[in-house]
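Subject: two folds for Thursday's group meeting

Dear M.,

Sorry for the delay on this. The cluster queue was jammed most of the week, so I only got both jobs back this morning. I'm pasting them in the order they finished. Each block is the input sequence followed by the predicted structure tokens. Could you check whether the formatting survives your parser before we put anything on slides? The first protein is the one we discussed after the seminar.
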Amino acid sequence: MTSTTPYFIAEANKRYSPRKNLEGEVRTDILVVGGGIAGLSAANKLTQVTPRSTKITVVEADRLGHATTGKSSGLLVDSIEDDFVDSDPAVCDQLNKGLEGIITATTENNLACDLRKTPSLYLARKEEHIGVVVREYEARKAADFPVQLLNNYGHILERATIGHTFAAMLNEEGYCIDGLAFTQELGRILDPRVRIYERTPIIQVNRSKKTAKTPQGTIHYGSVVFTNGAGAIDLDLLKHKVFFLETAVAVTRPLTEEEFQKTWKRGEHMLWDSEDLGYVYARPVGDKRILIGGSDRLNSLAKVREGKSNIKQPEKELKSLFNSLFPHLAEEVAFSHLWTGVIPAPIDGLSFVGEISPQHFVALYNAGLPNAFRSGELVAEMVATGKEPEDFDLFRWNRDISFREKSRVLTKWEPVTSLANYFFFRK
């Protein structure tokens, strides 16, 4: 039977014991709400940029990394949703800073989070997509990326055994990681002055009194950072700036050694299929398993609030995609885990960071793990110094996003979604 528990959450539950929840009254200088990668990044940075006497508290409604971080696919790449050729160079620069921050924190602290350098194959599996891959190759080549254009199927087969492909771009850069394990491991090695409480949701915030109520206690804080939506900001204030994507992800049972070696002929690779809408990706994970994600759907805020899904048969859809990518495995490989999740995606690809009222800060809607880590660093600098960091403008929470940018991004997902997005935030 296929488990609906995300693979990384299931694995973490075997490795990490729960931390205690918060009870009674607690006083802290800085409260970080949310124990995902943004929250732990903020807490980590705060230990580096605040005086030793500063008390820092992290609260998480579930367990560290068990929300969006634990449901993500653990891809550490330099662009989110967009191809590099369509991306703002400044946005890519910020994503790279987040990626480098994750890698540095992992390697310097020996975090056991399955960080692995993984080259990518960007595939044109339809003849009409060859131009898309060539255009991406030319843009990356001009920017000095270590890329190759594989325009012969035999050359592609030297790398991986996959269904017929007309062309591919090989990008030697890129990493994969277990994002949930990263947060748990980072939480383990943080300075002892950081207190972490799991299973402690914030149910009410009194901004004037600077208090946050939990089911079993009260937190008195000097400053607060919200790295999730709870109690932080009315979603309507971000109308026309965020769209919701629902995606499905599955992980196979472990492959045999023969199956694994036949699939990845020159070591492990990520695969990216240049679909007309959205994207489909696959990558090795864990003990010789394959993770596949895709079936992206736009979802409305109203449906998100009601817990309704736009992906009606995720297993059927992902199995069809898997069979197409890996026909040599199709008859033998079953999914062990399959889950769906909703990603609030900023239209311009970057988080919303800043001070929404005196001493109340946000780092919201982090599309991708590098983005989340970078937004945590930036908000920590703001809290510690009271000043806007040098790279802050791109992340400003109340920034304007042009109609042209909205149209360009949203029409990539569905026809006329610039209009649909307007109605997504009406309820």
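Second protein, same layout:
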Amino acid sequence: MTQPLKVAFFGSPAFALPVLEAILAHFEVILVVAQPDKPAGRGNKLTSPAVVTYAREHGLALAQPEKLRKNLEFAEILRSSGADVAVTCAYGKILPAALLEVPTHGFLNTHTSLLPLYRGAAPIQWALISGETRTGTTIMQTDPGMDTGPIILQESLEILPHWTALELSDALATQAARLIVQALENVETLERTIQDDSKATSAPMLEKEDGLVRWTDSSAVIYNRYRGVFAWPGTYSFLEGRRLKVLRMRPSAGSGHVGKILGLSENGILVGCGSGAIELLEVQPENKGKMSALEWFRGFQVAVGQHFKNQKET
């Protein structure tokens, strides 16, 4: 009987858990590697990544190196683990070339796009912002570049029109979990296809400013951005110098001046944009809890005809 495949798993957030669980169900996970605990929340309490919590609860060998480059101690930990292959899923650190050579079959990465499209840290978010109707998962052989390694497996996925980054992340995590098992089952005979760099697009890490509503855009473009930044940084705009978070919105019929409050609907507030209108449904004013857009309109002296701005007025 052949020995079970020994896998080292590199991942950090909750997104990576379905992939880790799928590997555990079929193979031997001999080491889990995640980012260090970090301060989080208003109290800056030291908080473990979801993968760390899971590894501790299930008694898995765990490492949380502060850095990987020139970290000889960690390289020895990986080498001595006897890993046949390593898998990365939303780990969050770039792997140095020397480390990639440690496992017998190198590193396999689960990337949430149809590479070479959307290389980078935020492929799910930028696919939505760009208005894509399909995306998918790529299992690739990791090389020293940014998502540039050869493709091993690839499968597309339809993006439903109402999905935000949260729903799309869940669907892609499930898809990635299934595909990584398929790849690992055939790790010794996998065919690898070189990416066409001429077709590559970029998906850089989001910035806080990416959540700002661009009212000059069409309603469809504004809505797609809202879907993409839903988990972070969220959607926001400014009215009378005050920031307003937009928790729920949707495109609507109608037209009017860019950023102008056009009137009320049965469920929300209509705002003009470059083409069409946006219906605000749920909002959160500065230093207040979330509320319906109608509650905000009626309780905060908001008036039809006021204009949202693209920046805070000084």
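Two things I noticed about the second structure. The chain is about 25% helix and 25% strand. Helices lie at 17-26, 50-57, 72-81, 97-100, 123-129, 165-185, 219-228, 293-299.

Cheers,
T.
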